[in-house]
Amino acid sequence: MDERGSSAQFFSGDRSDAVAWLRGHGVDKVRVEICDLAGVARGKAVSIDHFEHVLGHGVPFCAALFAFDIEATVLPGTNYGETIGYGDFIGKPDLASLRLLRHQPNTALVIGDIHWPDGRPVEASPRGVLGRIVDELEALGYRALAAPELEFYILDQDYRLMGDGVQAYSMHRRNKFLAEEEALLDAVAAHGGFEFSGHEYGPGQYEVTIPYQDIRAMADFGHLFRTTMKEAAWNMNRRVTFMAKPFDGMTGNSCHMHLSLIDRAGANVFAAPDAPHRISETCRHFMGGVLAHLEELTAIYFPNANSYRRMVPGQFAPFSRAWAIDNRTAAIRILNETVAGTRTELRFCGGDINLYLAFAAYLAAGIDGIRNKIDPGPPGQGDLDEQDLERLPNDWGKALDAFDASDWVKQIFGADFCKSFSVIKRHEYDSFRRTVPDNERKLYIEWL
What we know:
The chain is of the alpha+beta class. It has 2 domains: 15-122, Roll (Ubiquitin-like (UB roll)); 131-413, Glutamine synthetase/guanido kinase, catalytic domain (Creatine Kinase, Chain A, domain 2, 2-Layer Sandwich). The chain has helices at 15-24, 48-57, 126-139, 171-176, 178-188, 215-235, 281-292, 294-301, 355-372, 396-405, 407-413, 415-434, 438-444; strands spanning 29-35, 41-47, 59-62, 88-93, 99-100, 107-115, 143-155, 196-199, 205-209, 213-214, 239-241, 255-262, 323-325, 332-335, 343-346. The strands form 2 sheets. Strands 7, 8, 9, 10, 11, 12, 13, 14 and 15 form a 9-stranded mixed β-sheet that branches. Strands 1, 2, 3, 4, 5 and 6 form a 6-stranded mixed β-sheet that branches. Helix 3 (126-139) packs parallel to helix 9 (355-372) and helix 10 (396-405) runs antiparallel to helix 12. The N and C termini lie far apart (67 Å).
């Protein structure tokens, strides 16, 4: 057994031991899951009697899964639907991800690596995209460690707020939903431990921080954290949302992404105690790459119409192309309190990101900065929201235009991925533009 948290139970043997391990823990079904382009979990439950076959052959899924919009409408124009006759790809269990669940009895979960029937990897797989970029980093002699801070609202069964007013760090307000919080955290303990949980600013809003670990494992953890939270909330007639800006007048949900690089000896290569700001040139160049590629990657970092509603001054959702030391209004905040803990924090993403793709974008841009020694410029000072600085695109259409126009993005993510992502997101954008919201109708219908 591989214990990655006090309550997590992971499989650590080889294929020949897997079924016996599962039966020994009373498992009668295994969920084989993959992540779509929107970050939604898709999968099938496999009986324990059939799992031995699945270990060798995998689970077939209609490839149109990567032509789904957020509502699972199959869209034409990708390379995964009508052009291939709605054929299958295969999700083959990655046994390193096999774990027991806590919120569903007698059930285990494993993540599938996605391949075509002839063995070729599926280019549009978000987990595969991240894996390719991590392999590129490791060829340079580095490993990436990462951790997200995940914010979410606990809601009633009709997705309504269960309180009013704002508070931050309030232990009194936290106790209002203590039973829900503890049940949710117990469920996600299946995927590993956590560091902190606390009441955030909005009513019933929480933040959980997860211990640093390898970026591949962290992307799995973050993805499954959200899925498990939502499922466990259903079990208690509550709902959880990671939507970026779910309510007018209330703070949005962010996902701050902390990241550092270590060398083959395990040393943090971002730290330089004797250098200005105690950060290395490698760290500066990494930031330079992240800042240089912000515009063309905004569509990854802000993937939905609602994402852009967080881009408001004073809401702790930075939107300027700037970095700073321990400054929450910077797109990249440097934390350098210790050598081992020196890291970059990408602060502008919302809770609605696809973590695999966001980590991939973050890492790929930083690698480009290291290779090309991109200078991030001097650190910012003060409230950067109120200064005359270059901004991220605050319009979904402009962000998609920048994504589509970038040859670098196609090179990094693959033309096949970029085509499917763009087709899906442009469909959603067009639908958003053509839909008249209730508040707009209410504002204009009498007077115009």
